[in-house]
Amino acid sequence: AFPWRMMLICAPLLCCLAGMMQGVYGAGSCQLMVKFIPGSVYQAGDVVIGGLFPVHLMAPQPETEFQSEKVNAFCEIFHQRAYRWLQAMIYAVDEINNNPDLLANFTLGYLAADTCLAESITLLTAMSIVTGQEAHLAKSECGSVCLFLFYILTVSYSNGHSYSSQVSYLASCGCLSDKRRYPLFFRTMPSDAAEARAMAVLLRLMGWAWVGLVSADDDFGRSGMQMLIEALRGTEVCVAYNEVIPKDYPKMRIQRIVKTIQKSTARVVVIFLKDMDALFEEVVHQNVTDKQWIANDPWVTYRAFSVPRYVSSLAGTIGFALRKADIPGLGAFLTRINPHSPNSDPFVKELWETLFGCSLSGGLGQTLCSGSELLTALGESLYADLSQLRVTYNVYKAVYAIAYTIKDMLACEPGKGPFLEGQSDMKQPFSLSQIAHYLPKVNFTTPLKEWMNFDENGDTPASYDIINWHVTVQGTAEFVTVGHFVPVSVCSSPCPPGTRKAVQKGSPVCCFDCLPCAKGEISNKTGSLECVRCPERFWSSSDHTVCVPLQLDFLSYGDTMGIILSIVSTVGAALTAATFATFLCYRHTPLVKWSTNTVNTIFMLLLSLKLCFLCALTFIGQPAAWSCKLRHTLFGISFVLCISCLLSRTMVVLVAFHSTLPGENLMRYVLICVLWLTLAPPRPTERDSMDKRGPKIILECAMGSVVAFSLVLGYIGLLACLCLLLAFMARKLPDNFNEAKLITFSMLIFCAVWVAFVPAYISSPGKYTVAVEIFAILASSYGLLLCIFAPKCYIILLRPEKNSKKHLMAR
């Protein structure tokens, strides 16, 4: 959250000087320089871990005249977060020393120094640690353990500075992954390459295809932006502009860049910077409020920008931050310090005065600190803030990586690994190749249950929190974790469920294609080699991950079509019943008397029509043995009775009052039905069918005997044709006396419906076959009801003056 700059010279120099040291210093002479390095914290141990931290952000100005040595020069601007990182290193060392299962009978020490965020002090401190001396320091005696202690410290176990180190907790430049240039460099900070890939994935997933890029003119900015552009190559994301901010942050140049951002039609701006103050000051000044900012790790959780002054421009910012951790016990450890404690380090006094705004020395015009103030009662402070433990966790992991490396070295058997014969005592010095043998292979789980190792480039697995800036009711920004991102490096991504692996010809086994499972097959595990066929009466789901029962297809009362046909059938039966009641109520009127004649065929016709409407209901629902027999029997009887009644009435017209009951025709049909139900009755059956949604089981009623069904339809058709012919012959008789014309119209509709029924029935799939049959039944029934009885009901109910013997006998 402050201006980090990269210094890449330190790590190679450490390796070089350490290599020279191996032949320079003997076992009997080395220097304990901790008290000579200003701003350092030291604790002895079998192996001492060195750490460089920017506890201050501004170094004193150097003496440029070279005439005298500058004295009483102190670093300025105390950095509470960096001091928390230093304390996290100490806490991790203490935690490891108190764990007998990790390094039994072995003690770690530490040497932590302040670099003041200056290259010169960083290099001087590093060289002091490496060489064990300064120009005017006297030597002190120590044994071979001391020599080995500093050898290990400087070669591999320096828990390095944020600029560069052997095990770095903050250096993120992708260039440091080059093992040819930095063979002994390792880090717990993810490479910028991983964050660039994460940004590219975010842009693609959000559909942001027109973006602007802003980066710094340094290794971090140039490398990060180059990797982002490379990750976006070949995608649908296009770059509107690519602005670079010079190192000295010139005001005119920043004003021009912000104007470019404001005028561009690109609503999304990707930032690869570590020092954002100058840019965002100008953004606020020019009132840029309509941009979606994509933040990189250094500033996405920087609380200085969460105040209302910036929120109007930065609200909604989304970006990637190191995974947040909750280190148990660290909070109590941070608040244990006291300026009056004999074990307090040189930084406690300045921390105390910064936190409580007082002076321990009681300077002029300053409030005197008592030293008994409570850190726990202070409230929020950058030092004790545990809500964003990200870099702090990197330091914690770096110390544990060193500890597990030492554990692996202690477990080495004589003559095994990189050690020479008989060389396995930690008190003996080791070569760079021996150190390099163990650190890259370290593999462990942290106390927070996170697995950690270094890859071939010395990098740890990258893992990010996706942070979104939400505006609070107070007008400040709240950093909300809305997701996580863990990049992977594989030739082919694991095949998801529903697919199987297919090896690419001529490629390694880790390169493969993912082919979807065939129809009727599934795979329910990631990375399946084969798909499994579903058992009988089951089929694969749409994503081919589970077998689901085959769909049973039949016309049910719950289907929309079933509901509509049921309503139409019920309405037809109700209209028929109402007509029956009307004729029964007006049975003594002339019209009804002429219609019923002497044998009451009109009531038999209405009864048969009601059965026609009701028999349609037996075709709806899941087929069963009784319903299959009932539906066709009731269908045939009702229509034979209906047509027979019409045929009888037509004969009445032709022979003038001579009529017969339709019982003879009905008995012939009943005989056919009895033979059909006895010899080969209809029965429920199942058959498989395939449509665009997959296979299904169609439940239907098989005819049993096609001949019998043909005879039934043929017999009904014969009666209908005969009735139509006779009615057509009698159509010119006096209108007021006979109903031949009405019967002719009704039979024309009946015959037309059933002629059209045959091709529609044959070509309809599944339950639509039954629907076509029901439609034919209802259409022909409504045709008979309306053509024959609607005119009569009209006269009976609405034109009673025509319901008289005089009117009927007028012609």
UniProtKB/TrEMBL annotation:
<feature type="transmembrane region" description="Helical">
    <location>
        <begin position="742"/>
        <end position="762"/>
    </location>
</feature>
<keyword id="KW-0325">Glycoprotein</keyword>
<dbReference type="InterPro" id="IPR017978">
    <property type="entry name" value="GPCR_3_C"/>
</dbReference>
<feature type="transmembrane region" description="Helical">
    <location>
        <begin position="666"/>
        <end position="682"/>
    </location>
</feature>
<keyword id="KW-0812">Transmembrane</keyword>
<dbReference type="InterPro" id="IPR017979">
    <property type="entry name" value="GPCR_3_CS"/>
</dbReference>
<dbReference type="Pfam" id="PF00003">
    <property type="entry name" value="7tm_3"/>
</dbReference>
<dbReference type="InterPro" id="IPR000337">
    <property type="entry name" value="GPCR_3"/>
</dbReference>
<keyword id="KW-0675">Receptor</keyword>
<comment type="similarity">
    <text>Belongs to the G-protein coupled receptor 3 family.</text>
</comment>
<feature type="domain" description="G-protein coupled receptors family 3 profile">
    <location>
        <begin position="561"/>
        <end position="811"/>
    </location>
</feature>
<protein>
    <recommendedName>
        <fullName>G-protein coupled receptors family 3 profile domain-containing protein</fullName>
    </recommendedName>
</protein>
<keyword id="KW-0807">Transducer</keyword>
<keyword id="KW-0472">Membrane</keyword>
<dbReference type="InterPro" id="IPR011500">
    <property type="entry name" value="GPCR_3_9-Cys_dom"/>
</dbReference>
<feature type="transmembrane region" description="Helical">
    <location>
        <begin position="702"/>
        <end position="730"/>
    </location>
</feature>
<keyword id="KW-1133">Transmembrane helix</keyword>
<dbReference type="GO" id="GO:0005886">
    <property type="term" value="C:plasma membrane"/>
</dbReference>
<dbReference type="InterPro" id="IPR004073">
    <property type="entry name" value="GPCR_3_vmron_rcpt_2"/>
</dbReference>
<dbReference type="Pfam" id="PF07562">
    <property type="entry name" value="NCD3G"/>
</dbReference>
<keyword id="KW-0297">G-protein coupled receptor</keyword>
<dbReference type="InterPro" id="IPR038550">
    <property type="entry name" value="GPCR_3_9-Cys_sf"/>
</dbReference>
<keyword id="KW-0732">Signal</keyword>
<feature type="signal peptide">
    <location>
        <begin position="1"/>
        <end position="26"/>
    </location>
</feature>
<feature type="transmembrane region" description="Helical">
    <location>
        <begin position="561"/>
        <end position="586"/>
    </location>
</feature>
<dbReference type="Pfam" id="PF01094">
    <property type="entry name" value="ANF_receptor"/>
</dbReference>
<dbReference type="InterPro" id="IPR028082">
    <property type="entry name" value="Peripla_BP_I"/>
</dbReference>
<feature type="transmembrane region" description="Helical">
    <location>
        <begin position="633"/>
        <end position="657"/>
    </location>
</feature>
<dbReference type="InterPro" id="IPR001828">
    <property type="entry name" value="ANF_lig-bd_rcpt"/>
</dbReference>
<dbReference type="InterPro" id="IPR000068">
    <property type="entry name" value="GPCR_3_Ca_sens_rcpt-rel"/>
</dbReference>
<dbReference type="GO" id="GO:0004930">
    <property type="term" value="F:G protein-coupled receptor activity"/>
</dbReference>
<feature type="transmembrane region" description="Helical">
    <location>
        <begin position="774"/>
        <end position="797"/>
    </location>
</feature>
<keyword id="KW-1003">Cell membrane</keyword>
<feature type="transmembrane region" description="Helical">
    <location>
        <begin position="598"/>
        <end position="621"/>
    </location>
</feature>
